[in-house]
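Exam revision sheet. Question 4 asks you to relate a sequence to its structure. Input first:
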Amino acid sequence: QVQLVESGGGLVQAGGSLRLSCAASGRTSSDYVMGWFRQAPGKEREFVARIGWMYGFTYYADSVKGRFTISRNNAGNTGYLKMNSLKPEDTAVYYCAASMIMTATTETSYKYWGQGTQVTVSS
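Answer key, structure tokens:
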């Protein structure tokens, strides 16, 4: 089992920045991928970004490319999502998740999930 706990959400004005953290514990492995998803009210959960834990390869959704940066620490137990130039449409609950599939971008590809953290961007 892998446990994931997100933190760092909050209220920010449009154009501002936030950094989300995802602390991983349990049976973590350098073979897994950490992903970030978000779910806005009334909408389906959508993929945001992922990072391969061993080599750090990243992949982003077009909607956040150039504004968000996914990373992880060298200890291999914490992932981050730095969000710049935030827009009101970025308002959502953000979830981190873990998968053993290196190219995972779909919700069903991720086995472990955190509880989510709210990000609200005011206009």
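Marking note for examiners. Residues 31 and 54 are 6 Å apart (CA to CA).
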